[in-house]
Write a structure and sequence with these properties.
The protein is mainly alpha-helical. It is built from eight helices and three strands, in the order ααααααβββαα. The protein has a three-stranded antiparallel sheet with strand order 1-2-3, with no helix packed on it. Helix 5 packs antiparallel against helix 7.
Length: about 190
């Protein structure tokens, strides 16, 4: 059916579901007896407009100084600090989502070509991102430690409770909040 075709073309599950609801609604509307005028009225339905937020609800960006203060909280003499610095750099330099960072596997990192492959990103699409030289430097620093702790193919692994296994988005969220607190930044909330 159409849902299988849409998934084959790379549409996300939510897009397929919304399309199905729209098709069902159109069939239901056309199946009931109506006059021509009622059908024309139904065709004139406007799209929902989202209410714009107040200026204080907009996303807050960090200054370069704040970002550097967050990076400075990472102790690069430790496994954890080196890993944290690499992940935070990817988020702040490349605009990656937490789920994308923790979802990376070793095969996704191609330093030789300066590319990072994101699989199943937002919208269930794969994409390739160019790597900033600082990002490559910081990931490579982490990769010197990784063999001593990793128990899976994830690029970034947990060091304590998860015992070398893939990290979760919540782990990274907590790490980011902690780094912001240590840097004295209270207004930043990662998405």
């Amino acid at each position: 059916d159409y849902r299988i075709d849409m998934r084959a073309y790379g549409y996300s599950t939510s897009t397929v579901q919304i399309s199905g609801m729209a098709i069902k609604m159109a069939i239901d509307l056309n199946a009931r007896p109506t006059t021509v005028d009622e059908r024309l009225d139904l065709m004139d339905i406007k799209r929902i407009k989202y209410k714009k937020g107040k200026p204080d609800s907009y996303a807050i960006t960090l200054t370069n100084e704040e970002r550097e203060a967050i990076f400075a909280t990472c102790d690069i003499e430790t496994f954890k600090g080196t890993r944290d610095l690499a992940m935070l750099t990817m988020i702040f330099f490349m605009g990656m989502r937490r789920s994308e960072v923790v979802g990376l596997e070793m095969r996704d990192y191609d330093a030789a070509h300066g590319v990072l492959y994101i699989r199943e990103a937002k919208g269930a699409k794969d994409r390739a991102l160019p790597l900033h030289p600082i990002v490559i430097q910081r990931i490579d620093a982490w990769l010197k430690y990784r063999p001593y702790v990793a128990r899976c193919d994830a690029l970034f692994v947990g060091l304590h409770k998860s015992n070398g296994q893939k990290m979760s988005g919540n782990n990274l969220y907590s790490l980011m909040i902690d780094a912001c607190k240590r840097a004295g930044i209270a207004h930043y909330h990662p998405h």
